[in-house]
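Exercise 7. Predict the structure of Cytosolic beta-glucosidase from Drosophila grimshawi.
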Amino acid sequence: MWHMLLKIALLSLALEQSSRCGAASTYNNPSSNARHFPSDFMWGVGSSSYQIEGGWNADDKGESIWDYLTHNNREKIVDQSNGDISADSYHQWRRDVQMVRELHVTSYRFSLSWPRIMPGGYMNHVSTAGIKYYSNLIDELLKYNITPMVTMYHWDLPQRLQELGGWTNPEIIPLFKDYARLVLEMYGDRVKLWTTINEPWHVCEHGYGVDYMAPSYNFPGIPAYLCGHNLLKAHAEVVHMYREQFQQRQGGRIGITVDTSWPEPKNPDSAEDREASERAMQFYIGWFAHPIFSKHGNYPKVMIERIRNMSKQQGFGSRSRLPEFTPEEIHRIKGTSDFFGINSYTSNLVTPNGHNNTGKFPIPSFNHDMGVVESQADVDWPGSGSVWLKVYPKGMYNLLMWIHREYNGPEMIITENGVSDRGGLEDYARVDYINLYLSAVLDAIEDGANVKGYITWSLMDSYEWKAGYTEKFGLYHVDFSSPERTRTPKISARVFGNICKTNTIDWSFRPKLNEEQLVASARLPAEEAAENGGARLKWSLALLLSVVLAWIHC
Ligand SMILES: *[C@@H]1O[C@H](CO)[C@@H](O)[C@H](O)[C@H]1NC(C)=O
Ligand SMILES: *[C@@H]1O[C@H](CO)[C@@H](O)[C@H](O)[C@H]1NC(C)=O
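Solution. The predicted structure, encoded as tokens:
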């Protein structure tokens, strides 16, 4: 027991020892005044089909690339799990809507599973059950005045289309358009807020460039750029179709959601590090946002030039690995988004990749092309339940201001932001995270950024891709061992609900577990309860230490 405690204490010390007095005191902001959001600010909570639905082969649903990956390459998933049942939202959707209502949000962002609607990816087979599932969900939300914000594609491609090469095959463009036309016909009378594709960078680089997300091609430097090229064209075709055939009649809006961490220059006084930060933004966000949101369209200049130069040096001849758009295509893609959807969770420190490939990236690869080395090794930012996610609210401010400047003040909706832990209901770390990130969002709004909404990730604990069920992002806890996948609000659900209801960050609102939560807490599976106890102890020690350290330093 003492051994354990000592270990935890040392761990906390390691995590917290470098807390600056300033940082430590802003991280617990009890003395700051309440802060208010504009009265028309949109509040939402998000989820995605594969992560929550389960029912992987219910009715006539087809196989997705995530079904395929998790069934055939279990070893790639941290806990060898899959989303076959997950939170079972295919059956528990009424309870989901109840939770959305409890949070006082005005919007619920969820995604449609393409293979649930078109099992083989083609329109020769449309699933009546699949169509009905989302129709019911949409009606239930509307019954309570909650705006459905619907993502057409959140990573679960029909496996059959992957066998054709997925997003690397230009055939995906008309196929995605057929699928989009069907869902616009089915739901567009009721859905007024659409996004085409969630996080293109993840779809392309993590799916095709490295062995990370399905389909796990692990083929660096070439197919990710083909994927991006087709994806941008498919997105643009769907937006044009919506504008020409649906928008006037249905009166909705459509956009895209891109994602990035904020690349903080490792040494803010170094021009090279600041350049690396700018280049990282152009490669992560600009790859997809520049063609759509910039004045002249097309890929960012730095991306075009660097990849062309490197392709030549690497012996690819005069054809760049980054495909070229024709002037007509540039024109057709430009302006195809009614708002700028942005997902962001964390920040990294960045510095240039040296001449000798200090980052040791494969050549060629996206990372080598970008020429930036990222790390979180020497930061004093608090951690989370995910190794990649550290808490640095200023990064959110910097990111929003960058987008504001770069793309001439677009309307922005934060479509995902949130933090993970390893379980339990007393998620005060999530409460702190949400308060602090929202405060950073308000700072950006006060400095002119046109941020119109904030959608937190996630409604409930769910299947966290390759992390399986080990990392929890939910405002609601899900008991994955119970047949009905019982959902219980965490502390953060009550705090976020209060923010949405009052349009205000109230730093002092830190409720304790209520009756319902205490009962549910007692029923947590043993290992999660232990995790929770450990985390609680760690946080208490961490807080104690930051207080002591702050006291010593100040
Ligand atoms: C690409 O190569 C050209 C010609 O050598 C050079 O002028 C330019 O600066 C290079 N661009 C980048 C971004 O490396
Ligand atoms: C790169 O490697 C070469 C050969 O090993 C060495 O001579 C050179 O100093 C290195 N350059 C840098 C910037 O580290």
